[in-house]
UniProtKB/TrEMBL annotation, chain A:
Transmembrane feature ranges: 44-67, 79-97, 103-119, 157-176, 196-217, 224-241, 253-273
Protein name: Probable membrane transporter protein
Cited InterPro entries: TM_pro_TauE-like, TSUP
Recorded topology in the membrane: Multi-pass membrane protein
Organism: Sphingobacterium detergens
Subcellular location, principal: membrane
Keyword terms: Cell membrane, Membrane, Transmembrane, Transmembrane helix, Transport
Family: Belongs to the 4-toluene sulfonate uptake permease (TSUP) (TC 2.A.102) family.
A GO cellular component annotation in the UniProt record: plasma membrane
Cellular compartment(s): Cell membrane
Entry superkingdom: Bacteria
Automatic annotation (TrEMBL), chain B:
Native organism taxonomy: Bacteria, Pseudomonadati, Bacteroidota, Sphingobacteriia, Sphingobacteriales
InterPro entries (UniProt xref): DUF1634
Source organism of the structure: Sphingobacterium detergens
Source taxon at top rank: Bacteria
Keyword match Transmembrane helix: yes
Bilayer-spanning residue ranges: 21-43, 81-104, 111-131
Record's keyword terms, sorted: Membrane, Transmembrane, Transmembrane helix
Record-given protein name: Putative membrane protein
Length: 277, 133
């Protein structure tokens, strides 16, 4: 295969990954790793490097729209980023010592979990019984709903913060945004309405990924020939996806994709046990 | 200059607009460099065989250090031009954190100035420690 053919196929694959990642809320990075390893037989380390870049691209590209709407809770995001960035650096260091087959198996498990999270019931209501710590850290805020500002309070700050640390470690280890784990920490533990948690999670993904990306770049996991088609493809796919989202409700697509991604995840786990990475 | 740092000059909304602007500019800048480097790479190497990505060898020094990338890109070396785009992309969220710091300084929110500085320290520490493995 020539470089031209490889690049064009990869560009198209990354576009689809970005499109599906954005329509389902799974994120572009998560789809890039199986695409590169299972389809293109690229070493998982190059795939992780490219996936991190895809996560930063989608997070920064999509966030421009969210910040304008004023839903992102910047204080909450910044506070939780202490946990995710420290976790991300720890995860990137663990990745040096962990066998690639083990990384592939962990990736598969996280992928199944993320797929399940995209079809779960969402936390739509503002919570009013906030904790004292949330008050002290100024984490309670408001969000716009039908033209009005709805106040919300949050609870279990310590639990959410710890789960964010785990999300950070996985992000640094696997090169993904861990968006689903971040949303779980905010939705289920801290009782934040999902409109706020999805955008705040997106705000955090870029910063978390950047913290581990600098480690991966310096370790030589980022290959220019893979990086540019992946970033450009995922970015165009994600932008197209966010435009489509305004006009359609991809509920059926979400379920189909969750099933497909579970099958891909099982193949990653199986190959990991077969020592194919 | 004094006016720039007063709270009246910047409202909360302006700060979020500024943060949004930083992200948009960063992404556009990074993608432009990637498009230029990518097209150039395809013109020169398009007909070559795909490198062996199946076995991991890692990138050379010119693609993994900030100085190597910048020196290479300005000497018009194609791989380093692409890596410069990669570097710009990685910098975008970091610049965004600095933008938020600026916002908290204007609001005189000491607690969040400290929190933002911790996040920045972790990221910069991660860059400077140069964990290569």
């Amino acid at each position: 295969m020539t470089i031209l053919t490889f690049t064009l196929i990869l560009l198209l694959g990354a576009f689809v990954a970005g499109l599906l990642g954005s329509l389902t809320g799974l994120g572009g990075g998560v789809v890039v790793i199986p695409l590169l390893t299972l389809l293109f037989h690229v070493d998982i380390r190059y795939a992780i490097g490219a996936a991190l870049l895809a996560s930063i691209a989608t997070s920064s590209g999509a966030a421009t729209a969210y910040v304008k709407e004023g839903i992102t809770n910047i204080r909450l995001g910044m506070f939780l980023e202490i946990a995710t960035t420290i976790g991300a650096v720890i995860g990137a260091v663990i990745a040096i010592y962990m066998p690639t087959n083990t990384i592939a198996i962990i990736f598969g498990v996280v992928l199944i979990f993320s797929a399940a999270m995209t079809v779960r019931k969402k936390n739509e209501h503002a919570f009013s019984g906030g904790s004292a710590l949330a008050e002290k850290l100024k984490l309670n805020s408001t969000y716009p709903l039908d033209g009005k500002l709805v106040p919300y309070k949050l609870t279990n700050v310590v639990g959410g913060f710890s789960l964010m640390g785990v999300a950070g470690i996985l992000s640094g280890l696997l090169g993904i945004g861990s968006g689903s784990l971040k949303v779980l920490a905010m939705d289920s533990m801290m009782k934040i309405p999902f409109k706020v948690s999805t955008t705040t999670s997106n705000f955090m993904i870029g910063v978390t990924a950047a913290a581990s990306a600098v480690v991966y770049l310096q370790r030589g996991y980022m290959d220019p020939g893979i990086a540019f088609p992946v970033i450009l493809g995922v970015l165009c796919g994600a932008i197209t996806g966010s435009k489509l989202l305004k006009r359609m409700n991809p509920k059926t697509l979400r379920i189909i994709f969750a099933v497909a991604i579970t099958l891909v995840a099982l193949e990653m786990i199986f190959n990991g046990f077969q020592h194919k990475f | 200059m004094k006016q720039v740092f007063s709270k009246n000059y910047w409202s909360d909304k302006d700060i979020s607009l500024l943060v949004g602007q930083i992200l948009r500019t960063g992404v556009i800048l990074a993608s432009s460099v990637l498009v230029i480097g990518g097209i150039w790479y395809l013109i020169v190497h398009g007909q070559d065989a795909v490198p062996n990505y199946k076995d991991f060898v890692g990138e050379g020094k010119s693609n993994t250090t900030i100085s190597g990338i910048i020196v290479g890109a300005f000497s018009k070396n194609i791989p380093q031009i692409i890596q410069l785009g990669v570097l710009l992309l990685i910098c975008t969220p970091i610049v965004r954190v600095i933008g938020s710091l600026f916002g908290f300084v204007i609001e005189k929110d000491k607690l969040y100035i400290v929190i933002t500085l911790i996040v920045l320290t972790v990221i910069i520490g991660s860059i400077l420690s140069g964990v290569k493995g």
